[in-house]
Amino acid sequence: MKVLVIGGGGREHAIAWKMTQDPEVSKVYCAPGNPGMKGIECINISDHHELADFAKENDIALTMVGPEVPLCEGIVNIFRDKGLDVFGPDKDAAQLEGSKTYANIFMDKYEIPTAASGTFDNEADALTYLEKQGAPIVIKADGLAAGKGVTVADTMDQAVAAVKDCFDGAFGSAGARVVIEECLIGEEASIFAFLDGETIKFVASAQDHKRAYEGDKGPNTGGMGTYSPAPVVDADMEQYIKDEILTKFLKGVQAEGLDFRGIVFIGLMIDEEGPKVLEFNVRFGDPETQSVLIRMESSLADALLKTAQGKLAEVDMKFSDDQALCVVMASGGYPASYEKGHEITGIEAAEENGAIVFHAGTSMQDGKLVNTGGRVLGITARAADIVTAREKAYEATKKINWKDAFYRNDIAWRALERLK
User: Fold this and answer.
1) Which end of the chain has fewer surrounding CB within 10 Å, N or C?
2) pLDDT, tens digit, for every residue of 27-83?
3) Nearest Cα to 69, choosing from 15, 13, 7?
4) Across the strands, what pairs with 325?
5) Mean pLDDT computed over 80-88
6) Which one, of 73, 72, 74, 75, lies nearest residue 5 by Cα?
7) What's the burial of 2, exposed, middle or buried (CB within 10 Å: 0-12/13-18/19+)?
8) Rounded to an integer, what distance in angstroms lies between the CA atom of residue 231 and that of residue 206?
């Protein structure tokens, strides 16, 4: 079958890479794709209707939508209206990521454990609420802000500044409404689960590193590295998550009449009381996908297609017991302003030890590979244990260079602490 992957970041590179390994997949297209995608035809189409027409005209059996923005804009509705099989939630269901307020109301209604919160449409009321709550506290732009609209404020000054940033337009329309949440303390984990409206299946776990700098310091980013599986999600924790979060999530989707045939990617904070939901994402996580899919040993295309067709109950996904780790190399200055256009070298050398370099923010300029994004590359490796996987990933990472590139040296530090 032919497959179309929509998007061009590290997540889409990992998904398309996995598709090319599937004997049932005859051709993989990616729109727009990126320079690192080998054996994949990249197409320069961005309009949702034109993409659906392309899929129809080229007999695409499955379309996989990577990023959250087209999902929230209703691309799935357009494809389904044309009778096409597409993996992802429709526009209404995508609100679970597109609006944090919608997600919080959903969680309260269906008794899914999460942080206490308040939602505000104006700065004065938000600051009044903030004064009553104190710090530490979490400030979130309600809408989509590319992973940058969340501030974990340790002090009141930071919290007030974050609220003012939102209402002053730092995140555009995404910050027109602000959610202020209790600051949960514990260990983070990310959960992947597929659902098709009738069935929900736990897929895998991972742990991300959101802060820009080592020791979990600095501003929040879209993710500076991940590893999978997350040891905090042991067998007992997995069962608890299935019972108290996933089952309730499916119940809510059904009760609200949402057309959700895709993936829910859930950020959790786990403490002595158990897991609480930090956020819902209605697409594969980035860079979690890189460390999860490198462990997948069954057909991704089959799992996505059957989910899109409402046949998830027939799917049996298999993952290696190996550990996998992804190190994100970023442009100097990220997540604030950064310079673009610096030549990247060393990727071929980096892949000599079996690591895979997934492109997230690169392009070709005058025949040279250059950085064009904040998060640029995801260097991913797999091994029988986390120590070896980590060594393999960092050995590869050290061979790649461009001006002002940086990365965290402590990815998987919690897993290493558990080994002491």
Assistant:
1) C
2) 999 999 999 998 899 999 999 999 999 999 999 999 999 999 999 999 999 999 999
3) 7
4) 227, 381
5) 98
6) 75
7) middle
8) 9
